[in-house]
Amino acid sequence: MPARGDHDARRADVSEAVWRVLAARGFGGLTLRAVAAEMTASTGLLTHYFPSKRALVRHALDVAEERSETRARQIAEAPGLPALRAALLDVLPLTAELVAMSRVWVSFWDAALGDPDLGLRQTQRYVRWRARLRVHVEAAIGRGELPEATDPEEVAAMAAAFAHGLVVQVLFDPDRFPPARQTTLLDGFLSALPRA
Amino acid sequence: MPARGDHDARRADVSEAVWRVLAARGFGGLTLRAVAAEMTASTGLLTHYFPSKRALVRHALDVAEERSETRARQIAEAPGLPALRAALLDVLPLTAELVAMSRVWVSFWDAALGDPDLGLRQTQRYVRWRARLRVHVEAAIGRGELPEATDPEEVAAMAAAFAHGLVVQVLFDPDRFPPARQTTLLDGFLSALPRA
């Protein structure tokens, strides 16, 4: 029986391999076989960790969420609109690491549309994300950057829409959407919001 | 050997079954077996039409493109901004039929990110779509609805981003994004564009 330290190290290896498969092939290409090949291990070993495809997908979602939550973040210069801008920059594929992360999440949309449990997870992810964006919109209203009449929920939904739709276009055309243009487009969107 | 008419009818049946599988499971769930089950036919019959998974996916893409191109369109009241609005309404999941279509295209993004040929098809789809949107933006500038200084390519990319990002949120939360709210959000986005 391996020592506890070995066990934890192996779990970390498995999670790392799962992430590499996700980054290369998305949730659609995630299989025990692909993870095993990535680890130069046997599928038999993997079934010890993941008795089913479902268990593998659940773990992959946890890995993707942890990676997303612990990644480096944009530093907002101030609350309100600058914080909203930073939060939206956080989801744009501005670096190779973020391209991989975006690619994983776009692939998750397909997986989630085909599975009610995963679909609910994605619905809740959106609810939480819009709530975080809404905090920045409300701060922007409080600071007089946006008009009192602004509906924070609507602006949060519009901002989320703009950012995710831009992500997809970038993934399919990185040459036409280099990081500088992504930022320019985001600033164009933000500056178009009606000002107080 | 079946008569030509039978052959064409069978091809139409196959395409219809392919579409139903796409609408229910997306490109990620598209298999010969699923199409055969949908037709109550044997997988053997299907291999006559599709010698490989690749051939099936190619045909499914053709079916999806044809369905998208021949669907009912919003009628624009005028060129310029009203035409831009109509073109963007065209991609929102406002009806059950359009929800299915959106679901298929979101699933295609994952398939296309994992396959260079399909990825190129999606890149080209975006290039063509932005070019169509750009025509409306240019008309809006020509009609004095948008400022002369507007960059049509940037507004086309922003509009495409906004619409597709909204599509994804709607698919995961139809109750929070009923058709009336989708339209309101789109109008909010359009009215935020700087006016001439």
Question: Can you describe what's shown?
Answer:
2 copies of one chain form a homodimer. The first copy, chain A, has helices spanning 4-25, 32-39, 43-49, 53-70, 81-89, 96-113, 116-142, 152-172, 179-192. The first copy, chain A, has 9 helices and no strands. The radius of gyration of chain A is 19 Å and the shape is elongated. Chain A folds into 2 domains: 4-68, Tetracycline Repressor, domain 2; 72-192, Tetracycline Repressor, domain 2 (Orthogonal Bundle). In chain A, helix 6 (96-113) packs across helix 7. The first copy, chain A, is mainly α. Chains A and B meet through helix 6, helix 7, helix 8 and helix 9 of A and helix 6, helix 7, helix 8 and helix 9 of B.
